Q: What sequence folds into this?
């Protein structure tokens, strides 16, 4: 099996997909900043980034190579460089900082669960920290190669483990090796008539193991469910032994241990396989856009949609700022004119909130679902913008991370954070976090992207001219204040980005002292020496 | 608030609801046994049951009374008697055995979470085991007053804690005190236009706290969801501190600790409140019965129903034996003639498998759902028996436990056990467990009662003439062999009855060594001295 395409170390994805920063984005930002953007500064080349020296001894490397094969233990500059960070804003800053970066002493590529077990045994014996590495797309520091109390750290890259292990069509269960990425997994399933229906923005590069480890949610999770809801069974290889949970529809045999695997963030062990609920591949996929009078009207409409059982598979609503930003940025795909035309027709010169709905399923069922949903939206004053605008959103969906890279080259900070809360608290949380961010960034947009009967997620994007003297400090100040506001207003510290390093100090607000202690006890039980992803989660 | 009605110590529910054993049941059993039933032996009166002497010291009782009030610390015979067992078959045998029974040394009735905290503090200091007691309906030994390594044990009866703490209608979340029983909870919700939709067979006596502690599923859980799926937030008061989880729709903040509260079985702490997803009270509730050619045809029909999104809120299918038993027993409500007539019309003299469907919801939505479901069932050869037969089932639903008591008086053993597995494994598990039980009981029936996309539950009832010389040994042999068969055929050891004492030795088959160790670590963290419900779950 050919190895999967590696992402650029200095930004998202691959060069060929990156595109260019459009004039419309530049013009809109310069208008908002009332200033010209800085001239582009290209990221460094790989050879220019300095890494700390590898601490691995020949003897230990030999022991690992004896197990997984010599070619699957790498200590070369490029392997270490591409495993020394995730894709958060601080990661991108680090790559451009000129500082000597901490990197894993080696990158080890196990071929199966037995390999993982053997590597953990060696690392346990030798006192080496292990950072499980799936797609490397964490935006919260989840794959940063921290050593904890150890002298050495390896990245355990699961990209060789990419099998569809089994498919139980009758029970609609797929068992997947942890290193499978989104497109490859969907390709395997679609060939058999199925889909996982899991499409996070990182879809093209993130993996099954990463999704489960971070309790990922995808764009269609309102329809297909979050990854933790789809998790029926799993294997987590831990230093103390395997936690093997057979795929079962439901049980009352004490606490559900699947919930310890989901969200384990590499800190309890290595997820090597996951059994997930799959669905028939949709006959039809239809996206559409509507304009509503306001974000609060859109929110009410989506709440009614969800609670009355008419949820779209994809259901999103942007606030007024994000809507304006979306209209300005849509120029990238050339559909700006169409969007804007519909927008102006619907609202005159006023503001509005864009709603995206996506429908997936059997061709016969979608019409009735759509009709019920559109009736509700129209009661809240929504005006349809048509399927073209919806498709434009869907097309742009996986390319937005590239925009952040382009803007970073022009000294613009773009960062996102997300939370969820109950419907009754949603607008209060929205305003609280928005106020906190407005002190740090002139542009703060937000959208609802995941619906539940009891509440919804909020996803914030904030954009500011970079403080070139102290870009990390600038980011940290905004992030801290936003996180404090999330906690103060009763939101969860993360709806789908996970804890990693960045949210660690908020875990106690979420789980309480007793809860964090219980999790520490679980970690101690599964990972007595504390090898696994030190400094993350707990 | 008036205290709730206490169940009879020697059997299910209250005398007034018990009814009588009908001639049709007697005749059918005598036919199957080819023997007359034994003459009735009434259970002992309360005063006749001997209990071990209370070990509580005056000083400790005084300390507890100082906190919760003197009237809320009881050591009288009746209080101790009604808290010395649940409602499993071994519990009923014990009451009739003439043996001196182990009973809690005192029964303590806390008024709120602060009371619970204070009681745990005293018990921790003094070394007293604590058995949380909700409705006392456990059928797996969950409330048996084991002392573990301690000299003394109390039952902590939560029946004073019966408030609807809050209702967030916009977010569809109710927060309930743990001691609320089913009917009282539904009464509070229906008055406000809502329902929890949770109706286990124990509904009339079991409590919110008990449902969460045992990961309960109710008759309508195919529609409304299991209690663990409805659990949005909770408070668990543990000796080491409170685990307080705010009600949230979803989060990715590490492992979901709600999954440690659900299924905790009193062994980690005392659940004092739970925030649960609620639903609008249904405008219409409609039950109906159908006869299908065979259990496997019925199973296939229910699988299609579920996987194509046309699930009824209540969806059950009895195998041929249970169908025959149901038809014979339905005579109790006088609907036997009607059922039988339809049955014979549909199938001639052959056998069949009864399907019950229940629909709840807005009046406008049920017709379309029914049509889609009936189309699928008819493709599998189902014949409608009408709404009368469905209503007869629903009416009988909560009275079946009384039948077991009546039969026990006639020296007939009636016991049930349940499991779940994937659709692809369902019939294999069905046959495996059936074969194991057939060696111990001439009558073994089974039904599917909970549907999931990936599989379903199986609920077995087995009936035999009691071995009067060794009734407990007879039960244990059947139970052991059935449980071994469940594990051997890949089922979960319990779908909704929980672990308690009876399933403890199978937990390792479910969770593995690493999983059980992790749970022990959680217990050690929350309950360092091991006070909480010793000998249960872990």
A:
């Amino acid at each position: 099996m050919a190895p999967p395409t590696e992402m650029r170390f200095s930004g998202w994805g691959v060069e060929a997909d990156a595109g260019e920063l459009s004039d419309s984005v530049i013009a809109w930002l310069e208008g908002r900043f009332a200033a010209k953007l800085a001239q582009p500064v290209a990221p460094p080349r790989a050879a220019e980034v300095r890494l700390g020296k590898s601490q691995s001894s020949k003897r230990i490397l030999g022991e690992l190579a004896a197990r997984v094969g010599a070619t699957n233990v790498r200590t070369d500059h490029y392997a270490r460089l591409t495993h020394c960070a995730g894709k958060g804003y601080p990661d991108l800053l680090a790559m451009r900082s000129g500082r000597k970066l901490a990197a894993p002493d080696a990158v080890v590529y196990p071929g199966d669960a037995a390999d993982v077990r053997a590597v953990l045994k060696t690392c346990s014996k030798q006192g080496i920290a292990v950072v499980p590495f799936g797609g490397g797309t964490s935006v919260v520091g989840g794959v940063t190669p921290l050593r904890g109390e150890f002298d050495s750290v390896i990245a355990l890259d699961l990209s060789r483990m990419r099998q569809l292990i089994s498919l139980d069509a009758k029970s609609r269960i797929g068992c997947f090796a942890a290193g499978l990425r989104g497109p490859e997994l969907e390709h395997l399933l679609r060939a058999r008539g199925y889909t996982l229906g899991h499409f996070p923005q990182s879809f093209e590069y993130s993996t099954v193991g990463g999704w489960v480890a971070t309790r990922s949610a995808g764009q269609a999770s309102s329809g297909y469910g979050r990854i933790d809801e789809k998790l029926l069974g799993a294997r987590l290889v831990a230093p103390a032994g395997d936690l093997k949970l057979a795929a079962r529809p439901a049980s009352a045999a004490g606490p559900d241990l699947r919930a310890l695997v989901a969200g384990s963030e590499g800190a309890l062990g290595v997820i090597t396989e996951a059994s997930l609920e799959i669905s028939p591949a949709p006959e039809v996929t239809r996206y559409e856009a509507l304009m509503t009078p306001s974000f609060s009207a859109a929110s009410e409409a989506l709440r009614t949609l969800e609670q009355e059982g008419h949820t779209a598979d994809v259901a999103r609503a942007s606030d007024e700022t994000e809507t304006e930003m979306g209209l300005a940025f849509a120029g990238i795909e050339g559909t700006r004119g169409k969007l804007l035309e519909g927008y102006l027709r619907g609202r005159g010169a006023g503001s509005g909130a864009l709603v995206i709905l996506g429908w997936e399923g059997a061709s016969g069922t979608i019409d009735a679902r759509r009709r019920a949903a559109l009736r509700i939206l129209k009661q809240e004053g929504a005006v349809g913008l048509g399927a073209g605008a919806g498709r434009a959103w869907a097309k742009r969906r996986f390319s937005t991370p590239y925009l952040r890279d382009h803007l970073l080259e022009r000294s613009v900070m773009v960062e996102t954070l997300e939370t969820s809360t109950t419907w009754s608290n949603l607008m209060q949380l929205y305003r609280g976090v928005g106020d906190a961010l407005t002190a740090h960034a002139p542009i703060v947009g937000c959208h609802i992207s995941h619906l539940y009967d009891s509440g919804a997620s909020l996803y914030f994007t904030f954009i500011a001219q970079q403080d070139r003297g102290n870009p990390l400090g600038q980011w940290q100040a905004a992030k801290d204040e936003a996180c404090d506001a999330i906690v103060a207003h009763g939101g969860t510290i993360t709806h789908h980005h996970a804890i990693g390093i960045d949210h660690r100090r908020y875990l106690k607000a979420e789980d309480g002292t007793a809860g964090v202690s219980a999790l520490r006890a679980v970690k101690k039980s599964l990972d007595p020496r504390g090898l696994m992803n030190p400094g993350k989660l707990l």
About this structure: Residues 507-526 of chain B form the longest helix (20 residues). Chain B has four domains: 51-157, 164-280, 284-397, 401-488. Chain B touches chain A through 86 residues (CB under 8 Å).
